[in-house]
User: Fold this.
Amino acid sequence: MTRTDQKLLLVLLLIGLLTFVWSKFYTHPQVSPSQVVIKVEGEIVKILTLQEDAPLQRFTIKGKRGQAIVETKGQKVRMLEAPCPDQICVKQGWIESSRQTIVCVPNEVVIYIDEEASVDATTG
Amino acid sequence: MLKTRRLVYFSLFVTLATALGFLEMLLPNPFPLPGVKLGLANLVTLLVLYVYGLKEGLAVSLLRVLFASLLGGTFLSVGFFLSFSGAVLSTLVMAVLIKYVPALSIIGVSMVGAISHNVGQLLTASFLIQTPYLFYYLPVLLLAGLPTGLATGYLARLLLRYLKNYQ
Amino acid sequence: MKKFRLALVIISLGLVLGIGIIFFAQSQERELMREEFLMDTLVSISTYGTDTDFLQEATQKAFLEIRRIADLTNRFPLPSITAAALSDVIRINEMAGIKPVVVDEDVFKMLQLAQEYNRLTEGAFDVTIGPVMDLWGFGREKQKVPTASELQKALALVDSRKLILDQKAHSAFLNKKGMALDLGAVAKGYAVEKAAQVLEKEGVEKALINAGGNIRVLGKKEKWKPWKIGIQDPRTPSALMGILSLEDEAVVTSGDYNRTIQIAGKTYHHLLSSQTGYPVGYNISVTVVTRDAAQADLLSTALFLLEPQQALEFAAKLNKVEVVLVTADKKILCSPGLRGKIELRPGEEYSYD
Assistant:
């Protein structure tokens, strides 16, 4: 092992440790551009990554009953239109945290935000 | 005569690399981290780079990735592309270091080789899976590459001495 | 120099080993999450283990079990279904006042459980509430507020004592024409419990089943960490009122905000009194934690129908039943056994001790 080898080892070790510490402690708050997951009949049909300042976007989703329109703005998402009779999903409005889920039972569409959640499930 | 001898040695190296690579695939991973291996196959690539040169080194590493994946039934799977990109990147990086940084011994080269192998895999993985999250795994692979690179480096130096004596 | 070199090698090896061990616990285990729409809700099963194929198989079997219970207890026949495939509940209801119906063992067990709690709650909890549910139009296309005389007629048909269960024949009989079972308060929890048993039998040690808030957990989240289950704030759906720490337990909430209907601008919920036929208004929500999801589901409804104090006293008499209750005047009451297992953090409108 030459001097250069040793220097290299030290430098690499240092870089490794620093980036390790950095990745463990400093990046977490900004790691989570929230991800919106849209499922139809239990299958993921779309995953959207939402940045905080993202402009208004609309998507059509083909559900079991028909077409639904999903709208996102910033890190929020909502069901704009749905072909279900009760319209519970539409009335729910915007969701923006991982605890919230939009479920449209008739159309079998689920929309949720995926980030490190504080709870594993919610009862209510 | 010399040509035949070269060919035989080259084939032996490819076989050795394939066998070691396949062996590593079969053995339970001694490191509990996905993507981290001892890199015994890289050891052969390293030796070939020193004994022959870039062309042969690249050939050996490409062939051993191909053969090992055929043997293991992972040809054209995600794992195949991962080891492919890792092998190519590390071989190229090691070749450059050998040629242009003579101050580095085979151990230093091996360390950088091990790390670039991991980095190459990660690059491909994050491209295939399309998530930047994988990069948070980078420091782990970097740190893991150091001791494995050191170990294969020492081994390579040992083997190189015998090879040089023989030649 | 040699020593320095050796030290470097040892340090870096040690570091990697340490990091490796940290990652070991995290990287070995995988989560498998599957969702299906069953029993009018979204049912999700998350299982954890190293072998994904095995988890997949176990999860499929669990879903099969839920679907089986759903098909047995479904109250409204699907248009596509053949007469032979009618659910036990539909058959019992159709044969009301005519003859007993031989039912599946699980349906029989559910009915026994329901009858037991009917007795214990002195009639407050009643699965023969079907005629009143139908009158309001829950689960149907059209809804309306029933008239007093309509309600009186329907309420006369609500009486679990007229549900005759024959242990030997495994049959159930509603002995008056027009009576109707509604297993809405038991079936989901029962199905979840059965699914949990399937997973356990298959060898799954760690899982979370969530059927629209009917939650059953197997094992712990991590070695030193229980599962964290949020209780939804009944008035602010996006907020949590509290967080429960559970292991090998079930939790179910009944609330006045679930399964509601709107008639002429007014909202009515589905937890109807077997005395008046109207939605019961003593509580806003009742969350029950027990070992068994079927019991939790049934109790969350039964306790909701009781006055808060009475509900807590009732729960205290039962073994290993814990309750979080939000009264109509927004007081949060917890059973003493939950101390250390619940972290309350309600909004300002609520009060608690």
